Every structure is written in structure tokens, then in C-alpha cells.
Amino acid sequence: MKKRILTAVTAALLVVSMTVTAFAAGSNSGSQAASNATSNPAPAAPAPTYTTPNGQPITDALIGLLAAVTQGDANVLPVSKTTVIAISNYLKAISPNAAIVAAFNDMGPAGETTIKGSIFTAGTDYSIIIQFADGRVVIVKPKKVANGRIVYDKPAGVIASISVAANAKAPR
Hints:
- By secondary structure, the protein is an alpha+beta fold.
- Helices cover 31% and strands 27% of the residues.
């Protein structure tokens, strides 16, 4: 019995002493790994690419195209990418196949307003998305759609941006 206990204690001491020696011994691999981490930093993550619900990437080029309209007879200023991303969230409420065709910062007075641009065609179903400065969003239908222009009643209030969505429908 004493022999078994003595053997077990000796084996335990050997295991502990070997473990301590292994951890106490200097290892270059750990310091080499730290050195490699500082000299070879991980590549930066690519910037996220946001898209409209129909898959169109929201880029600076798209922002410029969306502002290629006039309101009344005045040129408009483009909106930010953040605004287009936010407005894209409302497209599914309009139609499953809705797409933004114009977006710009509002600069005109309330009342009957005309938006002009070569992208507008008679017979297409459009919705105007009005984003107020306080974050509210209102979607209105145009009073009239003709080739090259849309006429709608702009509500009163401090408006941050105006967007126009085309509601694509399958031909019958």
C-alpha cells in the first residue's frame, strides 16, 4: 500500500516538475509571433457597400445622377449617401420593385411644385418621398406626370430632402 502511494506521489511530482520546466524554458515562438503581429498588421476591412433594395450600389456617382433634376427652374443640391440609405428603407413600403430615380436637398417653398428631369416619363407610377428635418417621412403621389416633369403638392414645414421613386410594375 505504501509503495502504491509513494509511486503515485513520485509520478505526480515528476509531472509537475516537467510541466514547470517546460513553461519556464524560454520560447522564441511567442516573442516572434508578437513581432510578426506588429510588423505585418492585418489588412484593413473594406468599407461596407450599401445598396438600394433592388441591388443598386449607393455610390457618389449614383448620388450625382439622383440630383440631375431641377425643382421649379432652379438646380438642386445632392443629398448624402446616408440620406439615400435612409430613403432606401422606405422603398419596400411603396412597391416591391420601387427604385429611387431622384433625390435632392429641398430648397423651394411649399405648395404646387414641379420637378423636371429627363428620367420622368408619362405613364410611370411615381411616389415622392419627403423627409422632414425632424425625421418624419411623408410619401405623396404626384398630381401630374408628363414626359420630363412631375407636379406635386409639397407640404409646409422644414424639409430636409425630396426623393422620387418609380414603382416598376410588370407589363400585362
